[in-house]
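Dear colleagues,

As part of the handover before I leave the project, I'm documenting each prediction I ran so the next person doesn't have to rerun anything. This entry is a single chain, and its sequence is reproduced below.
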Amino acid sequence: MPKPKSRSFAVIGLGTFGTTVASELARFGNHVLGIDLQESNVSRVADTIAEAAIADGRDDQALREVGVGSYDVAVVAIGEELDANILCTMNVRMLGVPTVWVKAMNRTHHRILSKLGADRVILPEQEIGRHIAQMLHNPLVRDYVSLGNGFHVVDFRVPQSLDGTRIDRIGLAEKFDLRALGLMRGSDYVDCEAGATELRADDKLLLLGRRENLRRFAAGE
């Protein structure tokens, strides 16, 4: 599999959320500029990312001077001040940043940011809350990713009751309208396309389908 192309990111607002995003992007090999008004926040992340600057996201000239307009993506992670968040979003759009992701504080804020042209508006607490609730609700669901349009990919832990069962014998497509993308057995990937693969307890089965069908399968209905 080809390695994803690295991109440049400007992360504005270096609280807990922004620092985590900036640090992880840098760990993946991307060029990251971190910006915050507080010197202590900038100092905390300066050694882990390519560039760090003390600047006010509300000031378009300040953002222009640190070169935000030349970045591929801007992440507006200012979470405490609504006006600063909105002004910063407008500024990075005005500076011509191609892709803008913004942290929102509530659904009203979400709607405002969407109308301002943000490409993705994030409600971290709600998104993480839903994620955790899904995994708490069914312990066999280890993790999942929403693909949009009602489709999800779920990392499903194979229970003891399915140990030794061939994938084509559990009616994934016929009964549940689901597709097996493959499975992880320890650190090994096992292709499931042929359907003859026998499941083993604790395999990580990757399933694609709609939420309700995934729920029915996980519940053993």
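The CA atoms of residues 6 and 144 lie 25 Å apart. The first strand starts at residue 8 and ends at 12.

All the best with the project,
I.
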